[in-house]
Amino acid sequence: MADLKEKKENKPVVLFVSEEKEPLFSKKNRKLLTDPLNDDNPITVQVLGICSALAITVQLKPAIVMALAVMAVLAFSNMIISLIRNLIPNRIRIIVQLVVVAALVILVDQVLKAFAYDVSKQLSVFVGLIITNCIVMGRLEAFALGNGVWKSFLDGIGNAAGYGLILVIVAFFRELLGSGKLFGFEVLGHKGATLAESTGLYALGYENNGLMLLSPAALLTVGVLIWVQRSRNRKLIEKH
Fold first, then answer.
1. Which long-range contacts (CB under 8 A, 24 or more apart) does 105-108 make?
2. Per-residue confidence of the chain (240 residues) as pLDDT tens digits?
3. pTM over 0.90
């Protein structure tokens, strides 16, 4: 009995239990950023956000601005919804999500009008339509409602980056082949009234492809990207 008492008295008392926290950029967290850029891309794999990919990719500049706008809205809406997810009644969760996204879209729209008015006019109603973008609402429902703030932020950045990557690639080819320009600068040469007055490829008889400036060209370009991605990764091919 005396030995048992001595053991109990000598036994260390643990007052605090420290749990090992997951690093901010652990392997799982890095996958939230990298997967949407490749095998889980929201446009080419999940087939979301196609409408804006067709509409605002005639030039690189508006495509990049649109990608940044979606990134800001998606990242911060994910964070906000994740932060208040336990306070949102299930019956009105869609309404709450729409209110959060709408507030952020209005903020982004006002910033664009203040600092990039010309691009804001080019994007027209498409900034406002971010509210109904399938990618934004999809990530809020599928991820932000069930995960922490930091993971939700990374998920928003990753999916917006994957969306923006496709927009930039499509816009690059459409502007280059459709008008011979990038960011409004002539890169294939100057097209004059005659071959003698032309420079670069235009002096060799090159003509701009007007089809690339139309919406069907964006659909064809996205289709080619989907084909390239699935030819590289056969696991993405759906089995019927």
1. 105/73, 105/130, 105/131, 108/69, 108/72, 108/73
2. 455 444 445 555 444 443 457 777 778 888 888 888 888 888 888 777 777 777 788 889 888 998 999 999 999 999 999 999 898 888 999 999 999 999 999 999 999 888 888 888 878 777 887 887 888 888 898 888 888 899 999 999 999 999 999 999 999 999 998 888 888 888 888 887 777 777 878 877 788 888 888 888 888 888 898 888 888 877 777 665
3. no
To which residue do tokens 């446009």 refer? 43
**Closest of 157, 154, 143, 128 to residue 51, by C-alpha:** 128
Rounded Cα–Cα distance for residues 199 and 95 (Å)? 56
Beta strands in the chain (DSSP E): 181-182, 185-186
